[in-house]
């Protein structure tokens, strides 16, 4: 089993960054957190661009090997550090179901949740304004996404079955971000119960502590800088 620590270039405000850190924490993977604040432009510095020329977080360096994209990083870590099978199963059919969730996340859930938060909250800090029709479209996608999670995906305690997988980390951190807009999830009882299960995990609490403090500060003082 691999034992060389990895370097994770992350921003606590980034959903996939948090997912990667939680994965490391829950699997006892030795890692160094390299704080890469997007609002400070750390991702545009020459040193970081050598790790990820695209200038995005999360990014990883393991020895001389560099990798970007949160899902790819978690899959790599799962294989390299001999993690429990349930995270990304060896069974081709079970693994395909996890991949299905990860693909759906990018093509549907993230297309609704991320723009709803950015275009109604963070865009103001950059002097950006988006048409109401555009924001309504993202809300529509988000509503459909949450409905599908409630009625189609959540058939067990976790998204792919009775045990947690990497998709749970990705989905949870995306949905957590909706606290910025105080999104009402009361219509989705199974989703809320799943959120409670995720939030009760000590490693999740540890990694999300920073973003939850950001959200609290924002809601308490709407004009405060995040």
Automatic annotation (TrEMBL):
Keywords: Cytoplasm
Classification via Gene3D superfamilies: 1.20.1050.10, Glutaredoxin
Keyword Cell wall biogenesis/degradation set for record: no
Gene Ontology cellular component list: cytoplasm
Source organism of the structure: Euplotes crassus
Protein name (Swiss-Prot/TrEMBL): Glutathione transferase
PROSITE patterns attached to this UniProt entry: GST_CTER, GST_NTER
Domain of life, per lineage: Eukaryota
A GO term for molecular function: glutathione transferase activity
Domain GST C-terminal: 91-226
Pfam families: GST_C_3, GST_N
Matching InterPro entries: Glutathione-S-Trfase_C-like, Glutathione-S-Trfase_C_sf, Glutathione_S-Trfase, Glutathione_S-Trfase_N, GST_C, GST_Theta, Thioredoxin-like_sf
Cellular localisation: Cytoplasm
GO biological process terms on file: glutathione metabolic process
Domain called GST N-terminal: residue spans: 4-85
Predominant location: cytoplasm
């Amino acid at each position: 089993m691999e034992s060389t620590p990895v370097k994770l270039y992350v921003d606590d405000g980034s959903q996939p960054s948090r997912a990667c850190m939680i994965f490391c924490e829950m699997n006892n993977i030795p890692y160094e957190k390299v704080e890469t604040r997007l609002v400070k432009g750390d991702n545009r510095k020459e040193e970081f661009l050598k790790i990820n020329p695209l200038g995005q977080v999360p990014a990883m360096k393991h020895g001389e090997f560099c990798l970007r994209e949160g899902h790819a990083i978690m899959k790599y870590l799962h294989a390299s550090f001999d993690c429990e099978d349930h995270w990304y199963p060896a069974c081709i059919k079970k693994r395909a179901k996890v991949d299905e969730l990860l693909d759906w996340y990018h093509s549907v859930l993230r297309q609704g949740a991320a723009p709803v938060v950015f275009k109604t909250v963070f865009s103001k800090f950059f002097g950006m304004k988006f048409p109401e029709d555009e924001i309504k479209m993202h809300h529509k996608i988000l509503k459909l996404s949450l409905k599908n999670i409630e009625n189609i995906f959540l058939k067990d305690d976790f998204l792919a079955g009775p045990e947690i997988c990497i998709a749970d980390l990705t989905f949870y951190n995306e949905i957590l971000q909706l606290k910025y807009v105080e999104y009402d999830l009361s219509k989705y009882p199974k989703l809320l119960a799943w959120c409670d299960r995720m939030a009760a995990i000590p490693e999740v609490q540890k990694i999300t502590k920073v973003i939850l403090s950001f959200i609290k500060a924002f809601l308490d003082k709407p004009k405060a800088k995040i």
